[in-house]
Amino acid sequence: MTGFAGFLGALLAAVTSLVPVGAGPLMTGACDGTLRTRTAGTVEDDALTEISGIDRGVTNPGVWWVHNDSGDSARVFAISSTGAPRGEFAVTGATAVDIEDLAVARDPVSGDGVVYLADIGDNAGVRADIVVYRFPEPDLEAPGDATAPADALHFVYPDGTHDAEALLVDPVRGNLVIVTKSGPGGHGGIYTAPADAAPGGTTTLTAAGVMQVEPAPVGLVTGGDLSSDGRTIAIRSYGAVTFLDRAVWQSVPEALVGEGCPVRVVERQGESVAFATDARSVTTVSEGEHPRLRTTGLRPAR
Q1: CA nearest 140: which of 78, 68, 53?
Q2: Residue 60 CB neighbours (<10 A)
Q3: In this structure, what are the phi and psi dihedrals at residue 276, rounded to the nearest 5 degrees?
């Protein structure tokens, strides 16, 4: 019995080391290899050729908000779950340099959506600052012109310039988290900004650690998202989506330095990922003309 008890203990330890205790079903599926990827539709809009960020709507729960990479003007697009165009909005007060990600959070008072458009790309490492534009999520059912007036939140890193493509907004604590694209040895730098960062000045980001990613180029961090309850994190790279569990007592940076479970997602140039509202799947989309919307998640219940 002692030998069997020892074997059982080792087996349980191995299992719990792979799947965090209390992890949600999507995280569990990522760790045990049961998630599946399917095509949900095709992006129809000819203008969307370099999609670099995606997130679900809050004010408009049936749509995905997306944007183009560098070279486009400051604008966001709403598309349906199958890729049909639903709206286009110019972001006034914004000057696009290299917009790389987008997050939509719920305002804790009104319950409406707030869009964060992250102009944080810096391939040449020459930017004096980076900017996150914050504006109310446009209501597709409300009358009015197709503009979204934005506040500009300016940030600088505490340790020099960095190229970044991933922005996460914590639905629990409200703070902003930026993960840099690459670092020595396949590390992504983690930086945070407070929830009450105000326009009109420049805020210095706080260095909050590094997360291990796969070796470049596959493991370059190109996007990220948090589930609506803040319990599961998805980090996008060119070759995979890595899921990480977040305990209730953890900050987002503390969870990011933990052990993740990668799921291979092969796309032409995948730079975007977003959770569904129920956190049972994530949607990804590549750059390119008329790319496919791909959903990776749990098998449908029979």
Answers
A1: 78
A2: 19
A3: -70, 160
- Tally the residues of the chain: 302
Q: Are residues 261 and 242 in contact, defined by beta-carbon separation less than 8 angstroms?
A: yes
Percent of the chain at pLDDT exceeding 90: 76
Give dist(CA 237, CA 233) in Å, integer.
13
Alpha helices in the chain (DSSP H): 2-18, 25-32, 252-256
Describe the strand order of the beta sheet including 240-245 as a list of residue ranges: 221-226, 232-237, 240-245, 261-264
Of the candidates 68, 64, 43, which has an alpha carbon nearest to the alpha carbon of residue 55? 64
* Residues 235-276 pLDDT 10s: 999 889 999 999 999 999 999 999 999 999 989 888 999 999
pLDDT at residue 86, as a whole number: 96
CB of 237 closer than 8 Å to CB of 221: yes
Assess contact for 233 and 20: CB atoms under 8 A: no
Q: What residue ranges define each of the domains in the chain, with the CATH number in brackets?
A: 23-297 (2.120.10)
Give the model's confidence band at 217: pLDDT under 50 very low, under 70 low, under 90 confident, else very high. Answer: low
